[in-house]
Amino acid sequence: MTLARRRSLKFARWFLPGLLGLSFITALAIGAVSLSFAQVIGALTGFGEAGLASDIVQAIRLPRALLAAAVGAVLAICGAMLQGLFRNPLADPSLIGVTAGASFGASLAILLGAQVASAFGSLPVVSVAAFCGGLVAVALVYHVAKGVTGTSVATMLLMGIAVTAFSASLTGLMEYFADNEMLRRISLWRMGGLDAASYPRAFLMLLILCGLVATMVRFGASLNVLLLGESQARHLGVDVEQTKTWLIVLAAAGVGTSVAVAGSIAFVGLVVPHMVRLWVGPDHRQLLPLSALAGASLLLISDTLARSIIAPVEIPVGLITALIGVPFFVSLLRKSRESL
User: Fold this and answer.
1) Separation of alpha carbons 97 and 249, rounded Å
2) Of 16, 59, 126, 200, which has the maximum CB count within 10 A?
3) CA separation for the pair 338, 340 (Å, rounded)
């Protein structure tokens, strides 16, 4: 590792945690009702006076901030994992079909008139249907890609594109037959949003995040070896098939749950790992945790902007992440092209 890279890594290790902490406190302070940092700290610690500020922070903004941070971190980790698996820095979690499958499941539930119900205390049927749709799509992709010689990454990629296109066509067919109210619900859900945040949803995402964090140590080194190619990884003692299976399962569970509780949020799983990789290098032992911190910060900042730009009206957060992500991504592509 070069001296410049070591300095970048050292800087990222203290900058990204600080950015996450600042983004989290800012998300609690800014909204339709602005609060001071002293009011936010008092509401969190219980040392402040009970009142409107405490109710706003504890009942509304804290679960939303927790959910935003967890969803952003999960999407970024899953994106980094799949980019390492496909050995392509431009890979995206949607490539395995989970996002399109979840959109199909949610659209089907909305079209059939599913109402609020029953999983994990407050998750609606639409969210459960979205999660199931995403898992079915990934299971289909994995089943076709898996053969007697192992799991073909190229086949998985092509099958993911096919499943995504098929799910999108079915979703479009349901939109054609939906009435105006159902069509608006489907459209808003596909834009992504955290307006239905609650403590059960936040704790569910934090549980998924903890599971992904626990696997970083195990799969970080394996992903580094996979960058050399599957045959070289086998010679170096990596169980390639088991690693690929676990990565697909973890990514499907993480992205599927994220889409189920927050809708389709674009660009976090693509842009964040790519940006962090250009900053600190391709070592997944560093890339995965730093991507989690950057993804959490990005979604917290995006959600704060979505709530405050034209408050009290909220913009879908998926639109904000796309508006933020696209210019950064284009800039990074131009810089990387110029450096070649």
Assistant:
1) 13
2) 126
3) 5
Q: For position 316, which CATH number holds?
A: 1.10.3470.10
The DSSP output letter for 96 is G
The half-sphere exposure of 129 on its side-chain side, counting CA atoms within 13 A, is: 20
pLDDT (0 to 100) of residue 117: 41
pLDDT of 129 reads 84
Q: Alpha helices, DSSP H only, in the chain?
A: 3-29, 37-45, 52-55, 62-86, 98-111, 125-145, 153-177, 180-191, 199-226, 230-235, 240-262, 268-280, 284-308, 317-338
Given CA atoms 37, 276, 303, 207 in this order, what sign does their dihedral have? Answer: negative
Strand, helix or coil for residue 331: helix
Range of the domain at 286: 3-338
pTM of the entire structure? Answer: 0.89
Residue stretches of the chain with pLDDT short of 50: 114-122, 340
What are phi and psi for residue 150, nearest 5 degrees? 120, -175
Q: Supply 207's token pair.
A: 């549980």
Distance of CA 23 to the CA centre of its chain: 17
Q: Please enumerate in sequence order all residues whose Cβ is within 8 A of that of 194, keeping only pairs 6 or more positions apart, or say none.
A: 64, 67, 68, 71, 262, 303, 317
Give the whole-angstrom CA distance, residue 63 versus residue 59: 7
H or E segment to which residue 147 belongs? strand 146-147
What domain count does the chain have?
Answer: 1
Neighbouring-strand partners of residue 313: 310
- The first and second tokens of residue 177, run together, are 């037959």
Compute φ and ψ for 309, nearest 5 degrees.
Answer: -60, -50
Residue 50: what pLDDT?
59
